[in-house]
Design a protein that fits this description.
The protein is an alpha/beta fold. The chain contains 11 helices and 11 strands. Helix 6 links the parallel strand 6 and strand 7. It is globular.
Length: 327
């Protein structure tokens, strides 16, 4: 065989090997995942709803995925520190983020925060934590309609408290103002517990607040819930109507909990994680533990969750524009 033929045969074989290698890598990348432990970044302190949900799921996910799944708390900045850390991690599926609405709200309230909702791909909408609009039990308002009517008649007189500017509570109350035409003055108070205390003390008039935060006060009869800001009534307080029943379906502001990976994570990895989360949340024991923590299980997959988040982004962008949040 001539030297030219030998060289031609060599490069032909080499080309085939390169093609086979390139074909083989993407096909096995998802199949080999995970090859090491996975971390779930919780951007809030231990004991927060995000932390509880992630820790309940971690053992089941470890079993399903064949690798340890560990929850890591990276707190600060109202969730921004942990969310930014997850955004800066490699898009390899080994860093999962669990996040509530601040992942969508913080970039609207704080320009240049260093991340956007589009930096992440959702893998599972795990659940929601019911929220309620409350007033002091001895206040004159027995219904939502009465509070709205008074706030319209007396602009600038009534106040609502929130954990701070740009928080879920702030966005929720601004949406309430937009949809009802009622007038309230915003009082930022640094946390949900201080908000509840301020209502009890008569220092502010109302707030939209997580049901878990005010449950004891509702049971004790010191606070009154006027409405559940969700599609369905709360099981624990079945007599409290919803915003849907009151004619304001858009004021659905109950905190949600969604698991994400970095955008551009390989589709095979996203699919594997989505299947594992779905199966874990279908476990009755797991779901029961989560619901004991005041979170109603949703268990929606990536496509449905992505549509939901697009609607959320549109809604809250408009609220930020009208209320001039972050401007």
């Amino acid at each position: 065989m001539s030297r030219l033929c030998k060289r031609s045969s060599f490069f032909s074989v080499l080309g085939l090997l390169v093609l086979a290698f390139l074909f083989f890598i993407p096909a096995t990348h998802g199949a080999e995942y995970p090859a090491k432990p996975i971390q779930i970044v919780n951007p809030f302190p231990p004991g927060a709803s995000t932390d509880i949900v992630a820790r309940i799921l971690s053992d089941k996910l470890s079993s399903l995925l064949g690798q340890a799944v560990v929850v890591v708390n990276k707190t600060g900045g109202g969730g921004a520190v942990g969310i930014k850390a997850a955004k800066d991690a490699p898009a390899d599926g080994y860093t999962i983020l669990v996040a509530p609405p601040p992942i969508a709200l913080i970039p609207l309230a704080r320009k240049g925060i260093g991340y956007a909702l589009s930096d992440f791909t959702p893998i599972n909408f795990a659940g929601r934590n019911p929220a309620v609009m409350v007033v002091k039990a001895d206040s004159p308002w027995q219904s939502l309609e009465q509070l709205i009517a008074d706030a319209k008649k007396n602009p600038g007189k009534f106040t609502f408290g929130t954990p701070g500017t740009g928080t879920s509570g702030h966005f929720g109350m601004e949406l309430f103002k937009m949809e009802t035409g009622a007038d309230f003055i915003h009082v930022p108070l640094g946390g949900e517990a201080p908000v509840a205390t301020a209502i009890l003390g008569g220092n502010i008039h109302t707030s939209i607040i997580a049901l878990g935060t005010v449950r004891a006060h509702l049971e004790a009869g010191t606070l009154r819930a006027l409405v559940v800001t969700a599609q369905n009534r709360a099981k624990e307080f079945p007599d409290v109507p919803t915003v849907v029943e009151k004619g304001f379906p858009s004021i659905d502001v109950s905190p949600w909990f969604i698991f994400f990976v970095r955008a551009n994570t390989a589709p095979a990895i996203v699919d594997k994680l989505a299947k594992a989360f779905k199966e874990a949340l279908q476990d009755r024991e797991i779901a029961g533990k989560i619901e004991k923590g005041w979170v109603a299980v949703e268990n929606r997959g990536p496509e449905e969750t992505a549509k939901f988040l697009a609607q959320e982004h549109k809604k809250w962008s408009e609220v930020a524009r009208v209320a001039k949040i972050g401007q």
